[in-house]
Amino acid sequence: MKIQGLAAKTKGSQLEAYSYESPSPENFQCLIKVLACGICHSDIHMIDNDWGISNYPIIPGHEVIGEVVEIGSQVHHIKVGDRVGVGWQRTACLSCRDCLRGNENLCNDIQALIATGPGGFADYLEMDSRFAFPIPDGIKTNVAGPLLCGGITVYSALRYAGMGSGLEIGIIGVGGLGHLNLAWRPSVLPMGGNASFNCKLHRLYVKM
Ligand SMILES: [Zn+2]
Ligand SMILES: [Zn+2]
Fold first, then answer.
1. Which residue positions in the chain have pLDDT lower than 50?
2. Per-residue pLDDT at 134
3. pLDDT for 121-174, tens place per residue?
4. How far apart are CA 45 and CA 105, in angstroms?
5. Of 204, 109, 66, 88, nearest to 153 (Cα)?
6. pLDDT computed for residue 208 by the predictor
7. Which of 36, 39, 109, 145 has its CB 3.0 to 4.6 Å from that of 93, i.e. a possible disulfide?
8. Residues in domain Alcohol dehydrogenase-like N-terminal (predicted)?
9. Ligand 2 centre from 126 Cα, in Å?
10. What are φ and ψ of residue 120, in 5° steps?
C-alpha cells in the first residue's frame, strides 16, 4: 500500500509531503493506522543529522499512537483493532544477551524507528509488532505519545534505581523528561534550574 507522510528530504530541511510503498506485513510485522504522534527533540536531531545516522528522506516521529489494522502470521500479543504505542525501537535481534535480559535498547542489532525506516509522521506505520505496546483504555490518545519516549526514559531510570512507594526522589532539571515524572509522581521534588518555575510546576501537578 502507499503510505503518505511528511519527510525532510535533505539535512535540516522543512518537512514536505512524501509517500512510499509498504508491503503487507509478514511474520512479526504489523501495520498501524497512526492516530497521533508526539514530537521529541531527537526528531530534530535526526532531521539535522546531528548524530550522523540519518538517511534521507527521513520521516520523523517516534512517539506513535495508532490502531492495528493488519498483522503478520506470527503476531499473537496484539490484534487488529487494538490501540498501541510505538517508541524509539523498530526492532532488535531478540536473541543476544542484552535482548534476553530485557535490555533490547542495548542490542548491537537494534534498529531505531526513524534511523532505519519511516517514522510516525504519516498515515500508517509498518514495524515489528514486538515493539508495539497496547495502550490502556484510561490513557487518552492525544496525550499518550510522549510516554513512549520521554516517559519510558524516566520510568526506566526510576525502576533501575529501585524506586518504590514511600521513597522520595528529586529531579535535577525539569524539562521534557522530568516534567513527565512529576505528572505521575507528585511526591517527586523538582530541583535546580529556575526555582520559582519548579515550584509553580510542582503545585500544578500536585493539584492534578
Ligand atoms: Zn524521543
Ligand atoms: Zn539483541
1. 208
2. 97
3. 999 999 999 999 999 999 999 999 999 999 998 888 888 888 777 777 777 777
4. 19
5. 88
6. 45
7. 109
8. 29-137
9. 20
10. -95, 0
Q: Are 119 and 113 in contact (CB under 8 A)?
A: yes
Give the predicted TM-score (pTM) of the model: 0.86
CA of 134 to the centre of ligand 1 (A): 19
Q: Determine if residue 162 is left, alpha or beta; phi over 0 gives left, psi from -120 to 50 gives alpha, anything else beta.
A: left
Task: Determine the distance separating the centroid of ligand 2 and the alpha carbon of 128, expressed in angstroms.
Answer: 14
CA of residue 130 to ligand 2 center, whole Å: 13
* Distance in Å, CA 108 to ligand 1 centroid: 19
Identify which ligand lies nearest to the alpha carbon of 108.
Answer: 2
Ligand nearest to the CA of 97: 2
